[in-house]
Amino acid sequence: MNDLVAGQVLRALRRRRGWAQHELAHRVGMSQSVVSRVEAGHLGDMSIARLRRLFAGVEARIEMDPRWRGAQLERLIDEAHAEVVAAVALALEALGWTVTVEVTYSEYGERGSIDVLAVRADRLAALVIEVKTDLPSAEQVGRKLDEKARLAPGIVARREGWRAASLGRVIVMPENAALRRRFEATPVLVRLFPLDGRAVRRWLRDPAGPIAGRWFLSGIASRHRSRVVRPRRATATPPGPGPG
Questions:
Q1: Radius of gyration over every alpha carbon of the chain, rounded to an integer in angstroms
Q2: Does this model's pTM top 0.85?
Q3: CA gap 150, 7 in Å, rounded
Q4: How many Cβ atoms sit within 10 Å of the Cβ of residue 206?
Q5: Distance, CA of 103 to CA of 181 (rounded, Å)
Q6: CA–CA dist 241, 244 (Å, integer)
Q7: DSSP string spanning the chain?
């Protein structure tokens, strides 16, 4: 969405509510001139935080859509994600976990892929890891990982033949000061993943009971990927049709 279209969307949503520009401005704590500039498509001097607050005033969201050299941007993101996946797989294997990456699932209309699924058969423990190199939407991150953690016991039972007594739910990110600050400044994420990396590592060594936490991995480099053997890509499917 370009600046002009964003301004047109804001104007349409404001008018839909029957508000004048000054009414919207008052509701979001800005001046009428700011609303006027945005609706005219002049977003260049506006901070992302102010734009988000302004659009939230009409119950809308505005998302960043970075562009860089066409498809090369997607390949760049995929590479960074793969490096973190490989690094966490190595760390888990060193602690005695059996690791599978990119475990796809399709269960009663819920579809997706678990970035890292790790198990410890000796402890009847399972771990679901979501890898993120950015945090675009706290709500989306939490909702999707909750889905994966809810489905994980059934996936593990079908793959391994046993039911997990302990289940971990962890978000893993590369160690980055800006990313850490963004996480800690997002109350929803802190509530969803309350335990820090130290507590997560203690649980990994001695898994007992449930856990939800965040783990910032340092020292991630491209060399990690070449050292990890990627297990077969598996699709978990339900044994029969779901309930009506």
A1: 22
A2: no
A3: 40
A4: 10
A5: 30
A6: 9
A7: --HHHHHHHHHHHHHHTT--HHHHHHHHT--HHHHHHHHTT--TT--HHHHHHHHHTTT---------TTTHHHHHHHHHHHHHHHHHHHHHHHTT-EEEEEEEEEETTEEEEEEEEEEEGGGTEEEEEEE-S--S-HHHHHHHHHHHHHHHHHHHHHHHSS--SEEEEEEEEE--HHHHHHHHT-HHHHHHS-B-HHHHHHHHHS--S-EEEEEEEPS--THHHHT-PPPPP-EE--SSPPP-
**pLDDT tens digits, residue range 131-188?**
988 877 777 788 888 889 999 999 999 999 999 999 999 999 999 888 898 898 888 8
- CA-based nearest residue to 60, from 89, 92, 28: 28
Q: Indicate the pairing of strand 211-217 with strand 166-174.
A: parallel
Spans in the chain with pLDDT lower than 50: 222-244
Any residues with CB less than 8 A from the CB of 132 and at least 6 apart, and which?
Answer: 141, 171, 172, 173
Environment class of residue 145 by beta-carbon count within 10 Å: exposed (0-12), middle (13-18) or buried (19+)? buried
The two three-digit tokens of residue 95, written as one number: 């602690």
| 170 in Cβ contact with 217 (< 8 Å) | no
